[in-house]
Design brief:
elongated, 20% strand, 0% helix, two-stranded antiparallel ribbon, three-stranded antiparallel beta sheet, mainly beta
C-alpha cells in the first residue's frame, strides 16, 4: 500500500484507515504472485471528486451514474467554452 508517508506491506487481517483529502491519498496493489482480497468501505458522499496523480486523471461522481466521469486533466477546458454569449456578460 502506498500512502503519503511511503510504501507499506500489508499482511492478512491488516486494517487501514485513510482520512479524507490529500492526507489520505492511497493506492493498494498486489505485487505478489498470490491472489489477494481487499474489502473497502467509504463514507464518501456525492457529489465527490477524486484525484489520481499517477495517471493525471480526475474522477467526478455526481450521484447520477450517467453523469459520473473520469477524465485526463489535460482534456480540461475553460468553463466558458461553448457558452454562447458568455463573453458579452457584464
Amino acid at each position: 500500500m502506498r500512502a503519503p508517508d511511503g510504501e507499506h506491506t500489508l499482511q492478512r487481517g491488516d486494517l487501514v484507515r485513510f482520512p479524507a483529502g490529500a492526507d489520505g491519498a492511497h493506492k493498494v496493489m498486489n505485487r505478489s504472485d498470490s491472489s489477494a482480497r481487499t474489502l473497502m468501505f467509504s463514507n464518501a458522499r456525492v457529489p465527490a471528486v477524486s484525484v489520481y496523480p499517477d495517471s493525471d486523471k480526475i474522477g467526478v461522481w455526481s450521484g447520477n451514474e450517467p453523469d459520473d466521469l473520469i477524465f485526463k486533466r489535460a482534456s480540461a477546458v475553460e468553463w466558458s467554452e461553448g457558452e454562447d454569449g458568455w463573453h458579452l456578460a457584464r
